[in-house]
Amino acid sequence: MKSRKLILTIVGAVFVGVIVGLVLSSNMSWTNVGLANDTSQRQTVLGSTNAPLNNNIDVAALDNAFVQVAREIKPSVVTITSAKIIKYRRMNPFSDFFQDDFFRRFFQVPDDQQRNRGQDQEEQEFRQQGLGSGVIVSQDGYIITNNHVIKDADEITVLTIDNKEYTAEIVGTDAKTDVAVIKIDANNLPAIRLGDSDKVQVGQWVLAIGNPFSAELEHTVTHGIVSAKGRSSFQLAEYEDFIQTDAAINPGNSGGALVNLRGELIGINTAIISGGGRGNVGIGFAIPVNMARHVMEMLIEKGHVERGWLGVMIQGIDDDMAKALNLESAEGALVAQVMDDSPAKKAGIKIEDVIIEVDGKKVEGPSRLSLMVASMQPDSNVKLKLIRDGEEKIVTVKLGEHPDTEQKVAEQPKSTEKIGIRVEDLTSSTRKEYGYEEDDGVLVTYVKNGSIAYREGIRAGDLIKAINKEKISSVNEFDKVIKSIKEDDIVFMRLKKGTDHYYVSFKMPGEK
Prior knowledge:
Oligomer: single chain
Helix content: 10-25%
Distance between the termini: 114 Å
Shape: flat
CATH class of the largest domain: Mainly Beta
Radius of gyration: 34 Å
Strand content: 25-35%
Number of strands: 28
Strand order of the largest sheet: 5-4-1-2-3-7-6
């Protein structure tokens, strides 16, 4: 019995000791707190490496998401280098000396041997190079970029992530949105997935991929968030609806990809506010992918962009104006002028009408209304909700085609494609732009790199005035003459470049 009591006493003492030990160690923080425990009573010391993590964030998963997106998207982004050949004449420094009367008399130089002053000017070429980025949008070689990246380029080269180099051709450009589409001769390319920029939310994570400053920094990946949507009035393009981001974008990033964490393209990086040229300061802009996709599809399908036209001059509304017009808010677009014979005029829209909705979609201001109408097809019917004299009205308008819609490029004959050029009729604007006000001919708008026309020195902006001594004054005349020339026949062209005339001759190439 005594031994049994002794054992019970010892066990009891051990149990009491354990309980006391647990209480003491708990009060003195000798035990670790499990992640499942209540952390509401814990205090975190600033700068402590033992600060608890937010239990709702899987850091490893987030880290992996960035890595996976960057790995997936980088092959879809390409480096674009462009070159523009600028020709100029350099004066011979001894020209005036050789033309001097004393010199000619002293050395008895006959007048018929007198050198032409124009020939004393040596023609020089200067290659103006540019750098940008692009995004592969189809496996068969279509690439979307910015118009300003390839504008006026004579040569466009695309470098893919596997260091393959391609010569690109321009499919179409749209200066009004700063979107351009080029194409390379390749297949099975890693095309990016297009997202829906209308669903983009302020605050969501994004990655920007491109080539800042140098081709040696190709496929640089930066990250940030969507800072704002619907930014406009920066005069970067006629139609602006930018996504603002603080992901680092720098010169050379133009035309690159802005993607979400699902690896979807949501924007085409376009511009930055640089703060006096100091580089990125966290304010960058991207064209929403929905706008870029609409322009891209039209350029591929039609070669130009068709835009709807309402035919009104509109302006914004401030608080005082809203009170004067008996409006509940300053939203909408005020009609300041209605064009004669315009769709708006025919539909009965009047000055001082305030347009607040287009097909049920809210109009926040004049820039939004312009974008909405321009994105619609000519001849489509739209319902406008407007306020007139304090009352809401619904007006149905059949849109027209915007007068400034870029001229459709005339279909070129196969023989023209063999030469490697595209031509257009002269217009009042192109006559003034190139200085051909008093000339007849057809304007060269495109020259394919490496083509026979390119090798002969023909460039965009040159004017073709005659072919085989037949005067050319229209695209129809050009087509008729060029179609009549058979393979291996001589093509003799008279052209004008600025104020200078010149000739080229070559054999008509055969079918490729």
